[in-house]
Fold this sequence. Notes:
The complex is a heterodimer. By secondary structure, chain A is α/β, with parallel strands linked by helices. Helices cover 37% and strands 21% of the residues of chain A. Chain A contains three helices and four strands. Chain A has a four-stranded parallel β-sheet. In chain A, helix 1 crosses helix 3. Chain A is globular and about 30 Å long. By secondary structure, chain B is mainly alpha-helical. Chain B has helices spanning 2-15, 19-33, 38-77, 86-118, 128-146, 151-181, 193-206, 228-250, 253-258, 267-310, 328-357, 367-405, 422-435, 439-465, 473-511, and strands spanning 81-84, 123-125, 187-188, 315-318, 361-363, 417-418. In chain B, helix 8 (228-250) packs antiparallel against helix 10. The radius of gyration of chain B is 26 Å and the shape is globular. The interface between A and B is medium-sized, with 28 and 32 residues.
Amino acid sequence: MDILCVCGHGIGTSVLLKVNVESVASDLDMDVNVTTADIGAAKGTADASDLVMTSPQLAPQLDGVTTPIETVNNFMDTDEIKAILEKYDD
Amino acid sequence: MNVLATIFNFISQQILNVPAYIIGLVAAVGLIALKKNVGQIISGALKAAMGYLILQAGASVVSGSLNPFGQLILKATGAHGAIATNEVIVAQAAKDFGASSAYIVVISFVLMLLLARFTPLKYVFLTGHHMVFMSTLLALVLSFGFGAKNSWLVVGLGAILMAVIMVATPSFAQPFMNRITGSDQIAIGHFGTLSYVVSGALGTVVGKKSKSTEDINFSKNTSFLRDSMVSTTVLMIVLYLVFAVIGAFALPAKVAFSVFPSAPKDYGAYFMAAFGQALQFGIGIAIILYGVRLILGELVPAFQGIAKKVVPGAKPALDIPIVFPYGSNASLIGFLSSFVGGLVALAVIAVWLGPMWGLALILPVPHFFGGGGAGVFGNATGGRKGAILGGFVTGIIITILPAMLMTVMGSYGLKNATFSDSDFCWYGLIAGKLSSFGPVAGTISLLIVAAVIFGLACLWQVKVVNKGWVPGAAHAAFIESVKKQEDAEREAERAAEKAAKKAAKAAAAAKA
């Protein structure tokens, strides 16, 4: 599945989230393709992915996006990320 | 023999001298180390190399939009104006110093892993764009200090200086981070640490009895400022138009109009030209960031994969937005007070210090991260007062220090962009000033500086951080007591409600 990680700039936190999502996904044996974007570009590209992951502060700005959005409080907490990914693991 | 020499010459001149290709090769090596497949390695290396070229393309757009701006300020006020935005100055300097800075990033990363492995400073600095900025800064000031001939000395010394600062700054900020996050899992890896520590320290002084920023209800209308492209462009539009108005009053129409390449014929066209250039600035920043994103998307995972293998259990030192969830109101308050602080400092430089020190006017663009981070640190130790004061002082710091840094940036000191965050400024100033003593004296004195910073950080880590000291205890106790009081009030309210209901029931029963 295609996952989009979003932060304000698209260069700091979202890249770290991508790293952690990839490592959690490989533990779960999920086949994921993770891309990063800043909040401005995310609105346009979100529809092309299956899942959007971002922080609770930014989630309201993605109103109107049809893709499911999951918020992550701590981008370094692999358990939190794991709980989210397991929902989508089929 | 000659064939070999030709081949070596070709590789060193045509490949290892081009920053984009070095970055691409580094990404490829990292992806190979992570055992990715051939397709992923090729696409990763290409993306990283092209990301660098995109960054340079963005730089020319930004420079183009800043030229009329600088002209306008110079003609209207007589002062040299500059924008303190790391992305811009780094992209502008990429052509001259890209190769040295790419080598500094790679070597310093290896040195940092060794320091994290064998010394008490167990931090892995993972904020990729700040590595690129710091390495470019060091390559730039050391090259001007030592002269362009000593490029290997610049790379070697630059890598040592950078490795030290990458493990030292997270250590200094760690007690504050522990207070903010309530755990000791993550460190801050962002070269605005001076502002954050100052902000946290000020918070402990002024905010013992100040409520948290997080109880304030901000309107939804301010959330658009969290989008960096929007906030940067909005600020630039304001700044551009302010100076366009000043220019309109201070200059004859002909002179003011001639600033813009589109050659406006009347004031309407003149103001719209200013507005258009401000948007161009935003576009340039967006292009640069897109390039940075491509590079980091490949490099950071590779770096982290390698770090995990070499230094298991080290704390990741991460970008400043990692603290925003712990104080989203605080980051907004910090950003706004930093902006105000920047304007105050700007006025001070323009009116009083400028003529004395010949400082440039530093226009505040990137207060969002530095100021926002300072707000969170200030709030953690000193509530609302801490957030406001911390942000304000940060604004002053990142207006005055970048202006001073421009004095050691050689020919780049005359351009219209400079570094913004506090650590770039003080570290760059020291490196620039000491390297001007020449290769031998400069190298020795800078090695001593690196050793002193490293020693202090080790001492701090062992005596303070590892002992579990967390600042702002008085403030935390106050917040706890407020919470208890509120809980007690709520309990009392509930009890009163219950009693009222009971009384009503009893009354109803009595009627029946």
